[in-house]
């Protein structure tokens, strides 16, 4: 072992992508193992590595961690991206949970049947522009600071920039009515660790394509 965190998942975004984002934001290099067959996945279960028979799996600090939220909380706490006290942590948790609801829609979008894609895209646009992005636009405007919580870079900022870019891939003009979020996007994208993660050749995964969808269905088939 190199001492680097080891991430086991498919070679695509899915539920591992926010973990990749957070480690990258913290400046932490990691190794990846990509599942390509159902046999690889079944072996992880047989070997007792997946507590609830689910990936992501992250091996870090001698632990074999599963459950995305638990992994993210640990990384945020370990690398000082989780606020300075319980109140800040509660705010970060609220913002992260809200963004996760939006990201869940984006996560499931590639698996939509063709006839439902347009409707589901409309739903993503509606939720982003009417429910989720207005919250963060208001927060940033009210406190006049560069970051969401405590005027310090945190897990909430990482989760929000990931969501903004993911929605923009599908709806390029989605931020047109959100000047605060436009400024936030520019600011966060230029933080050195984030800027590095956004460069070609980084561990950031591309938008899911048909091959990724096929691999997911193959690896996790019942």
Automatic annotation (TrEMBL):
- Residue limits of the GST N-terminal domain? 3-83
Q: Which GO terms describe its biological process?
A: glutathione metabolic process
**GO molecular function per UniProt:** glutathione transferase activity
Q: Which InterPro entries match?
A: Glutathione-S-Trfase_C-like (IPR010987), Glutathione-S-Trfase_C_sf (IPR036282), Glutathione_S-Trfase (IPR040079), Glutathione_S-Trfase_N (IPR004045), GST_alpha (IPR003080), GST_C (IPR004046), GST_superfamily (IPR050213), Thioredoxin-like_sf (IPR036249)
Q: Which SUPFAM superfamilies match?
A: GST C-terminal domain-like (SSF47616), Thioredoxin-like (SSF52833)
Q: Which EC number applies?
A: 2.5.1.18
Keywords recorded for this protein, A-Z = Transferase
Superkingdom to which the source organism belongs? Eukaryota
Q: Which residues form the GST C-terminal domain?
A: 85-209
The record's PANTHER family line, in alphabetical order, gives: GLUTATHIONE S-TRANSFERASE, GLUTATHIONE TRANSFERASE
- Similarity remark: Belongs to the GST superfamily. Alpha family.
The name on file for this protein is glutathione transferase
Q: What are the top taxonomic ranks of the organism?
A: Eukaryota, Metazoa, Chordata, Craniata, Vertebrata
């Amino acid at each position: 072992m190199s001492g680097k965190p080891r991430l086991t998942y498919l070679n695509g975004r899915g539920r591992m992508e926010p973990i990749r984002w957070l480690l990258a934001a913290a400046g932490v290099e990691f190794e990846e193992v990509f599942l390509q067959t159902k046999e690889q996945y079944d072996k992880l279960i047989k070997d007792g590595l997946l507590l609830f028979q689910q990936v992501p799996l992250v091996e870090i600090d001698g632990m074999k961690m599963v459950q995305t939220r638990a992994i993210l909380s640990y990384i945020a706490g370990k690398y000082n991206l989780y606020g300075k006290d319980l109140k800040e942590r509660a705010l970060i948790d609220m913002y992260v949970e809200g963004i996760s609801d939006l990201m869940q829609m984006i996560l499931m979008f590639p698996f939509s049947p063709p006839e439902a894609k347009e409707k589901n895209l409309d739903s993503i646009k509606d939720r982003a522009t009417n429910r989720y992005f207005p919250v963060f636009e208001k927060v940033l405007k009210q406190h006049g600071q560069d970051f969401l919580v405590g005027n310090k870079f945190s897990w909430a900022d990482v989760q929000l920039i990931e969501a903004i870019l993911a929605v923009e891939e599908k709806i390029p003009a989605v931020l047109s009515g959100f000047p605060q979020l436009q400024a936030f996007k520019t600011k966060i994208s230029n933080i050195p660790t984030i800027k590095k993660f956004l460069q070609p050749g980084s561990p950031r995964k591309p938008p899911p394509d048909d091959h990724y969808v096929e691999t997911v269905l193959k690896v996790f088939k019942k």
